[in-house]
């Protein structure tokens, strides 16, 4: 139940409660979608349909971004090996976004993955902060491998500036985390 603060209207509290409930229902539907996405990825349907990959098929036919489609497949592939996290999401203790981070971390760390340890962090943090906690966790397990990934990000960065016909400056690029932080500040 959402708390009704003394100076707020009951409608605001009702809207807040409804929003939390709706987002939980959406998380449950996303988990179902993830299971379907994993089944599709295991099949050859997407290939016969003319797509380059299951993620490509999902992106096009479900009107999702590449990342959202990839997240569905990742969660679907790993959810059976994440029983505590899946149960916590179903109970509303964490959201689907937490489960995505958990699945991506499980894929990246393999047998060293510790669901119980990370689930505690997921319950304590927002999905964004949990992502950074998982990055630290990955670094603690394999500092050299993590450093290689970061070096790859640096190698693959690019930035281009061009002018539009009306004189506007167009900026296009991909920055590594350090470069991105520099732009933000």
Describe the structure.
There is one protein chain. The chain has one domain. It is 68% helix and 6% strand. It has helices at residues 10-42, 45-48, 54-61, 66-78, 83-90, 96-109, 115-124, 127-141, 143-155, 177-184, and strands at 158-163, 169-174. Strand 1 (158-163) and strand 2 form a beta hairpin. Helix 3 (54-61) packs across helix 4, helix 6 (96-109) runs parallel beside helix 8 and helix 8 (127-141) crosses helix 9 (143-155).
Helix and strand composition category: mainly alpha
Largest sheet: 2 strands, antiparallel
In the sheet with the most strands, the strands line up as 1-2
Estimate the mean pLDDT confidence: 93
Distance between the termini: 39 Å
Report helical residue fraction.
55-70%
Task: Please report the total strand number as a whole number.
Answer: 2
Radius of gyration: 20 Å
User: Low-confidence stretches at least 5 residues in length (pLDDT < 50)?
Assistant: none
Label the overall shape.
globular
């Amino acid at each position: 139940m959402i708390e009704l603060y003394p100076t707020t209207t009951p409608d605001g509290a009702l809207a807040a409660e409804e929003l939390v409930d709706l987002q939980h229902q959406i998380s449950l539907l996303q988990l179902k979608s993830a299971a379907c996405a994993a089944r599709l990825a295991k099949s050859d349907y997407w290939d016969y349909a003319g797509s380059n990959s299951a993620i490509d098929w999902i992106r096009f036919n479900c009107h999702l971004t590449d990342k959202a489609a990839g997240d569905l497949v990742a969660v679907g592939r790993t959810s059976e090996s994440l029983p505590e996290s899946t149960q916590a999401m179903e109970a509303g203790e964490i959201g689907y976004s937490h489960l995505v981070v958990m699945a991506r971390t499980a894929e990246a760390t393999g047998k060293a993955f510790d669901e119980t340890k990370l689930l505690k962090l997921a319950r304590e943090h927002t999905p964004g902060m949990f992502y950074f906690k998982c990055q630290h966790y990955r670094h603690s397990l394999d500092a050299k491998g993590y450093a290689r990934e970061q070096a790859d990000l640096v190698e693959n960065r690019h930035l281009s500036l061009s002018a539009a016909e009306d004189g506007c400056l167009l900026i296009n690029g991909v920055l590594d985390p350090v470069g991105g932080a520099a732009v933000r500040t």
